Amino acid sequence: xxxxxxxxxxxxxxxxxxxxxxxxxxxxxxxxxxxxxxxxxxxxxxxxxxxxxxxxxxxxxxxxxxxxxxxxxxxxxxxxxxxxxxxxxxxxxxxxxxxxxxxxxxxxxxxxxxxxxxxxxxxxxxxxxxxxxxxxxxxxxxxxxxxxxxxxxxxxxxxxxxxxxxxxxxxxxxxxxxxxxxxxxxxxxxxxxxxxxxxxxxxxxxxxxxxxxxxxxxxxxxxxxxxxxxxxxxxxxxxxxxxxxxxxxxxxxxxxx
Amino acid sequence: xxxxxxxxxxxxxxxxxxxxxxxxxxxxxxxxxxxxxxxxxxxxxxxxxxxxxxxxxxxxxxxxxxxxxxxxxxxxxxxxxxxxxxxxxxxxxxxxxxxxxxxxxxxxxxxxxxxxxxxxxxxxxxxxxxxxxxxxxxxxxxxxxxxxxxxxxxxxxxxxxxxxxxxxxxxxxxxxxxxxxxxxxxxxxxxxxxxxxxxxxxxxxxxxxxxxxxxxxxxxxxxxxxxxxxxxxxxxxxxxxxxxxxxxxxxxxxxxxxxxxxxxxxxxxxxxxxxxxxxxxxxxxxxx
Lengths: 257, 288
Fold this sequence. Notes:
The complex is a heterodimer. Chain A is of the alpha/beta class. Helices cover about 35% and strands about 25% of the residues of chain A. Chain A has a domain at about 10-100 and about 215-240: P-loop containing nucleotide triphosphate hydrolases (Rossmann fold, 3-Layer(aba) Sandwich), CATH 3.40.50. In chain A, the strands form 2 sheets. Chain A has a 6-stranded mixed beta sheet with strand order 6-7-8-3-9-10, with helices on both faces. In chain A, strands 2-1-4-5 form a 4-stranded antiparallel beta sheet, covered by helices on one side. In chain A, helix 4 (about 115-125) runs parallel beside helix 6. Chain B contains 11 helices and 4 strands. Chain B has helices at about 5-30, 40-55, 60-85, 90-115, 140-160, 165-175, 175-180, 185-210, 220-235, 240-260, 265-275; strands spanning about 120, 130, 135-140, 215.
């Protein structure tokens, strides 16, 4: 399908000519992409292709100017990012979160010494009141019922799979309009990965717009409806995932067929 | 076995070091910096308290709060207009903060000398009298020190563990990036935490003011001692700060009772031994 067909939709998120720098090294070079409301988009690519940097620019972890403190990931980006027609450049990560974009960071980044319940409460930090928070908690536990018995455990005591569930559940607690998932399958066994994939699918079907960054291209393409293949910080290929799955280059380079 | 009075003095010192060290660790855990002028906030707190009680005649529990609020506010200004500006993300940031806060030591001591004068001031008339307990007696002032320290510590415990702000502070201390991804404004939290840390120092200074003397240079010793307490307890651990403060306070007074001049030598040797056995401190997480 030619890209102009897709471009005719009303876009929820739009990245225009994004460059992400760490010191003077560019990790993302002139990348543009867009995500529609309700979409499930995946960003694929090899390690270091610039996928995570792109997500970090959207969520504000990488700042629009030279990095300020409080962020372990120091870097900055050039270009323009629009969310629902409003420019996100220059907003802090906290402000961007309050606009309805929640990122589940790579490596989960749970609060290790907080209990699972407290981790989820931090996820609901932007919720106005306790009732709303309780409702979010119930919803998150419907998606991840395994966590019900572990609410009192410290996050660091959980297994890798459970930690990943907490990370996503924490993201859901804010009831985001858009969920950015950074390598959620990393380090999980095939069974757990499958389980998690189903949960993510459910989240998307519930109406949350999802952007999934994956090194595991097969997983990304199976779940999402639209995909971007990123190479050397640029979009090398994009299209409906059904088309990408049959693309010879994608097959050879990412699916190992 | 030293007399009871020595143990009580140890407890009083512990109270100071605990409150000071707690504030420093709290600041360190969120801002990632050591405020070398922490002791001068202690000193300024003592002066604010002194003038609130003597010149304004405000009852002393209220004066204590005023001291905390005013000096805490000063801490917020220092964070906003000095520390935040020099704490750039590169490796030099930490060095700049160290230099800036060391400069503040001299600035605050000089300013206090000019404004308040260098002669010693006393507040012994606040809460006079002693509680007679048969074999020994304790002054009401010392009892007040312990009670107020307890109140402050319990308040901090409740704030950190049972409020939304407390949850945000703990989250930001563990994973600042993840905290900001969920809407926590870590920069604003830094201001608040710096305010709390300096307010704690100021209140420690105020509580101790009636027991000791007040002059512009009283901040140095409590600062060094609470720094030692932090190192013993493990940098970054609030429990460690409290336990380290307790250990140091008692050590200081009990060792001084037996050895007078050598007490500080013994103190530092003990600290070195603790660190040789547990380099991460008593409550610090070991680095893997």
